[in-house]
């Protein structure tokens, strides 16, 4: 899948760089190269953040599932342990 680049935003950035006071404003071609560099870095950053968010969501889902299974098995064990209790019996816990 190829990433779509917003060319309007790219050209606006290039013109802002060209009109600004910085080392990339010597010529419009240098400003355009810098705008492409910034755009590529931005796309890589967004992709990296999306991957990070997906991994975090997957880990939190796995963590919730793991905790849910432990809680269910713990509850079943506790119910079995306390099922034969006499009313008011002390268990020491």
Could you give a quick summary of the protein structure above?
The protein has a domain at 39-66.
Number of strands: 0
State the helix count: 2
Q: Please state the average pLDDT score.
A: 84
Strand content: under 5%
> From the helix content, strand content and strand pairing, which structural class follows?
mainly alpha
Radius of gyration: 30 Å
Span between N and C termini?
Answer: 59 Å
Biggest sheet features: none
What sort of overall outline do the alpha carbons produce when their principal axes are compared?
A: rod-shaped
Helix-strand pattern: HH
| Percent helix | over 70%
Residue runs with pLDDT of under 50 for 5 or more positions: none
Task: Show the helix and strand layout.
Layout: H1 7-19, H2 28-82
Helix pairs in contact: 1-2
Account of the protein in words:
- By secondary structure, this protein is mostly helical.
- It has a domain at 39-66.
- Helices cover 73% and strands 0% of the residues.
- The chain is built from two helices and no strands.
- The chain has helices at 7-19, 28-82.
- Helix 1 crosses helix 2 (28-82).
- The two termini are 59 Å apart.
- The model has no long low-confidence stretch (mean pLDDT 84).
Provide tags for this entry.
93 residues, mainly alpha, 0% strand, rod-shaped
